[in-house]
Amino acid sequence: MKIYEYEGKTEEEVILKALNELNVKEDELIYKTKEEITGLLKKKRIKLRLIIKTDVIEYSKEYLNNLVTGLGLDLQLETKREQNCISIKMNSNNNSILIGKKGKTLESIQILLRQSIFNKTGIFVNIILNVENYKEKQEKNIQILSKKLAKEVLQTQIEIKMDSMNSYERRIVHETLKNYKGIKTESEGEEPNRSVVIKPSK
Fold it and tell me: How many structural domains are present in the chain?
């Protein structure tokens, strides 16, 4: 996974330089910029560090294959480049092992992959891992539960604290109930035991 670095006076200048040299479109890049003040005249310089999405995908596929085959599983991967993330769907001869209890194994693999890329590049890449349609099913279940609890809060006017959830799961709850009349949601607690509290808004 090759890292490219450029410098210039403005962010637009260095991005344009990178696009011209690499002959790619901007949506094919993942980058971060850093502003530095140099010299006695304190001139502003922009430093750009970037990686190309196709390289990240190839690295991710190799990483996941090495990790999962080490567990004795056969793995097939389906990748998709989206605007704000890279989605990778995994399928194996034993998907329940990849998912783990309450999705903990899947979440751990995702964290390991993201951290590995960051350690190599210094750039955070938002990679979303899925197994079969686990996340779609998980999202639907959380939405159903959220609405059920919200209805109970409306009837009793007593707040309900949900079980601990990761940031992805909490975001589903907040999004599901953000326009639910008479209800408000707040996240409380410290990671990894942070949870959503559903409250009456009045």
Answer: 3
User: What pLDDT does 142 receive?
Assistant: 93
What's 161's domain CATH number?
A: 3.30.1370.50
Give the span between the Cα atoms of 9 and 32, in whole angstroms: 15
CA–CA distance, 171 with 184 (Å, rounded to integer) = 13
pLDDT in tens, 93-102: 999 999 998 8
What pLDDT is attached to residue 40?
67
Same-domain pairing of 157 and 98: no
CB of 114 closer than 8 Å to CB of 160: no
Let me know whether 121 and 166 are in one domain: no
**pLDDT (0 to 100) of residue 50:** 94
- DSSP notation for 21-80: HHT--GGGEEEEEEEEEETTTTEEEEEEEEEEHHHHHHHHHHHHHHHHHTTT--EEEEEE
Burial of 110 (0-12, 13-18, 19+ CB in 10 A): middle
With tokens 């909490």, the residue in question is 170
Residue after which a domain boundary falls, among 132, 148, 182: 132
What is the domain range of residue 39? 4-51
- What's the CATH number where 114 sits? 3.30.300.20
Q: Within this chain, do residues 100 and 164 fall inside the same structural domain, yes or no?
A: no
Burial environment of residue 29 by CB neighbours within 10 A (0 to 12, 13 to 18, 19 or more): middle
